[in-house]
Amino acid sequence: MSEVFLNNKFVGKVNNGKDYVNQLIGLRRSNKMPFGISALYDDKTDQVFIESGSGRCIRPLVVVKDGKPLLTDNMVEKLNKNELKWQDLVQQGVIEFLDSMEEESAIVSLKESNLSPGDTHLDLSPIDIFGLTSSLVPFGNYNQGVRLTQGSKNQKQGVGFYAANFFARMDMDVNLLNYPQRPIVTTITNEILDMDKHPCGQNVVVAIMSYKGYNMEDAIVINQGSIDRGFGRSTYYRPVATEELRYSGGLTDEVSIPAKDVKGYRTEHDYRFLEEDGIIYPEAVVEEGDVIIGKTSPPRFLSSLEEYNLATTSRRESSNALKHGEKGIVDFVMLTESEEGNKLIQVRLRDPRIPEIGDKFTSRHGQKGVVSLIVPEADMPFTASGIKPDIIFGPHGIPSRMTVSHLIELLAGKTGALSGRYIDGTTFEGEKEADIRVELLKMGFRENGTETVYNGITGEQYKVKIFVGNMYYLKLKHMVANKIHSRARGPIQLLTRQPTEGRAKEGGLRLGEMEKDTFVAHGASLLLKERFDSDKTEVPICENCGLIAIYDTRKNSYFCPMCGENTEISNIEMSYAFKLILDEFKSLTIYPKLKLKSKY
To answer: How far apart are CA 121 and CA 112, in angstroms?
Structure first.
């Protein structure tokens, strides 16, 4: 007798567990039971497990009987002609869905050509095991597994042509590649997803070699001539929006150029771009501090007396201005209504982004790198046929990461560019590496992808052959212009008197515990005195009771709230945060007595 478990609960026993499971599977294949139910017979424990819960991952597989798949060529033809639907195949039991539990009892073949008599199922396609972005990586079967997932993650961050109606949309910080291209080395997913309509990279010539040590540790060197011809150029779009809100008592916001008597009036220079309606005009070149939409709001807190006062209360300034480090050109101004029926003004800014040192680029194989040098075209190395690479890629990123498909894509891209065709690089099913090599050899190039290269500065021939080819490169959305941040002095927080946090607020750069240790290790510990005084303050301390004393500015004298005026008071340097904790101790009725002694 075999025990039966339904969704991990014991429900009874059957005489023959194996036959019982085969019977269940037969019912499912003949469409007499829902396709989402899975069954497994465990012969070691003589138990039957049946799963019907929602939320399980189930994958479709072609059923194989006697070493032959039930999906015939005739059926595939009917599918192409729309005479047969997917659901029909499921109902006929040609395709069934298996979850991870039932898959334990199945032997799944990757390809039809690999079928053996013991196989029970066949994959619909070998690239079934990948997600959408992973299947876009060409020749993925030559890659190490982790690099494949990293390559797919990188593609999601690529700057490309994300929507055809971008000019009519107000999306938060969006990047748009100015000259996107379709990859030479493509995969079947490219066609299925219609990726040609929204590409995300460009085909470039890549040479794998070192260049004066500038491409150490994943850094890449870029040809200035390529940038001049449009490589990696993109535009950054960002919206600024405001709404005329209504408040209690019939008060409303007003979009206009603020009058000079308004609380918080900026300077006339800040409002110089505003037209009569208080909104900026298109194509204005703006920088930080410039007002985009002028707006005044009613005063925040009205006392009961002021509410009935006939005299107009002073309004406050609440314009939208560019924050620290922002700049751009006004691209588009839109006036509309919000859901509540208030006037809504949206202004879109654009900022052209030309590749610069520190911008991030990647291939589709997780080989990401940062631009370390932009070389004048005249100084770039050149091949015997006069080709100058757009990107010089460091060779040390290949051996340890085992991204062989990165090299094969270079080879295939070169062949495709020379023969003027697209190359199918679908994982498991793409063109064979050997065929690509033969085709490259026929066109008069070395079949291993290497070429004779000359030094662009001295004209000397390099003593080694350099691997050169064409590759699809992506510019990532992580750009220096969005991340660069520095500060000397600036705004501080009200409570702790320490610098504000974050780039948007013009915040300080924190030197933490670990950074402190590096200074000490370098023997520069005295520098910490300068570094750790962002909230330095001088506090008068009574030497008798050890509490904080008081300085009277009018009398220019000190006194202690405990001991009076006839006591010794010294000014002590301390962090304002320490002064705060002393105050907190007092509030907890703890006596924080400071014992002073001379420095010397």
So the answer is: 10
The alpha carbon of residue 345 and the mean position of all alpha carbons in its chain are separated, in whole angstroms, by 29
Residue 206 has pLDDT above 80, yes or no: yes
Of the candidates 345, 352, 347, which has an alpha carbon nearest to the alpha carbon of residue 330? 347
**What is the structure's pLDDT at 270?**
92
- In this structure, the answer to whether residues 457 and 323 fall within a common structural domain is no
Taking a C-beta distance cutoff of 8 angstroms, is the pair 371, 218 a contact? Answer: no
Is 200 buried (19+), middle (13-18) or exposed (0-12) by CB count in 10 A? buried
- Kindly state whether residues 347 and 363 are assigned to the same domain: no
Which of these three, 422, 445, 475, is where a domain ends? 475
Count of the separate structural domains present in the chain? 4
Judge residue 88's burial from the number of C-beta atoms within 10 Å of its C-beta, 0-12 exposed, 13-18 middle, 19 or more buried.
middle
Residues with a catalytic annotation lie at: 218
The stretches of 128-279 forming alpha helices (DSSP H) are 145-156, 188-192, 224-228
pLDDT at 92 over 50: yes
Residue 304 pLDDT more than 80?
A: no
Place of tokens 């995300």: 200
Q: What is the average pLDDT across 3-7?
A: 92
Q: Distance (Å, rounded) from C-alpha 436 to C-alpha 414? A: 10
Does any domain span residue 452?
Answer: yes
Residue 101's pLDDT is what? Answer: 92
Residues 436 and 365 in one domain: yes
Give the Cα separation of 383 and 369 in Å (integer).
23
Task: Kindly state whether residues 103 and 150 are assigned to the same domain.
Answer: no
Say which DSSP state 147 is in. Answer: H
368 falls within a domain: yes
- 266 and 298 together in one domain: yes
Both 116 and 8 in one domain: the answer is yes
| Phi, psi dihedral angles at 437 (to 5 degrees) | -60, -45
The C-alpha angle with vertex 548 and arms to 546 and 554, in degrees rounded to 5, equals 135
pLDDT digits (tens, 9 = 90+) for 140-193: 999 998 999 999 999 999 999 999 999 899 999 899 999 999 999 999 999 999
Buried-exposed string 342-370: b where 16+ CB fall within 10 A, e elsewhere: ebbbbbbbbbebebeeebbbbbbbbbbbb
Q: What is the CATH number of the domain that holds 554?
A: 3.90.1800.10
Task: Give yes or no: residues 114 and 227 share one domain.
Answer: no
Q: What domain range includes position 150?
A: 140-233+357-475
Q: Look up the pTM and report it.
A: 0.84
Calculate ∠ Cα 42-46-51, nearest 5°. 50
Residue 496: inside a domain: no
Listed residues 302, 332, 353: the one ending a domain: 353
Same domain assignment for residues 229 and 369 = yes
Q: What 3-state class would DSSP assign to 40?
A: strand
The answer to whether residue 548 is domain-embedded is: yes
d(CA 425, CA 537): 65
Q: In the numeric block, which tokens belong to residue 248?
A: 């209690």
Q: What is the number of residues in the chain?
A: 600
When pLDDT is averaged across residues 390-418 and rounded to a whole number, the result is 95
Closest CA to 199 of 145, 162, 246: 162
For residue 307, give the CATH number of its domain: 2.40.50.150
Structure tokens at 244: 């005329």
If residue 468 lies in a helix (H) or strand (E), which one and from where to where? strand 466-475
